[in-house]
Design goal:
By secondary structure, the protein is mainly beta. The chain has 2 helices and 7 strands. It has one domain: Ribonuclease Inhibitor (Leucine-rich repeat, LRR (right-handed beta-alpha superhelix), Alpha-Beta Horseshoe), CATH 3.80.10.
Length: 184
């Protein structure tokens, strides 16, 4: 689903439709200009391995049952600046290897149970300026190999690396988008 409007008024993937597509493995929502939240019925697609929600500027909420997507390996929530929280059920995604929450500036914190993502290998959290404090549980993510962050969380990640994860690669990316010029 790309460059679409009208999704806010549609019912996507009701249970009957989910049964028709039991082997769906990938869904992409990109530049869906009026999408404010993902339909909860998407969580019925338990064979889904990759879910991307990118450049959906109005999306504020993810389904509470997101953790039912037991086969999910990649979750990309990039450039969703209105997304303010991740549901705690995200921590039940036991197959998740890649999580991209980059450019989610309204995201205030990560769920405390984040350490349950035992297979997570890569976390992209570049330009998540709303995240001020990282949960201490992140140090328990033994499979985590690479973090992409910005200067806002760099020191916290370096402290985690030094204390518990010496093989972690921390890539610091310079800020790409800045609206400070509006103040001039």
């Amino acid at each position: 689903v790309c460059l679409c409007e009208g999704l806010a008024n549609m019912t996507l993937f009701d249970k009957a439709q989910a049964l028709k597509f039991p082997k769906f493995v990938e869904i992409n929502f990109d530049h869906c200009s009026d999408l404010e939240e993902l339909p909860g019925s998407i969580c019925s697609l338990t064979s889904l391995q990759r879910l991307s929600v990118t450049n959906c500027h109005l999306i504020q909420k993810l389904p509470d049952d997101l953790g039912r997507l037991s086969s999910l390996r990649l979750l990309r929530l990039s450039a969703c600046p209105s997304l303010s929280m991740l549901p705690s059920s995200i921590c039940r995604l036991q197959q998740l290897k890649f999580l991209d929450i980059s450019l989610c500036m309204s995201l205030k914190d990560l769920p405390m149970e984040f350490d349950q993502l035992s297979k997570l290998k890569m976390l992209d959290m570049n330009e998540c300026s709303g995240l001020k404090m990282l949960p201490k549980a992140l140090a328990k993510l033994r499979s985590l190999k690479r973090v992409i962050c910005d200067e806002h969380t760099e020191q916290q990640w370096l402290a985690i690396k030094a204390s518990a994860m010496p093989n972690l690669t921390v890539d610091v990316v310079e800020e790409r988008f800045n609206l400070d010029w509006l103040d001039d």
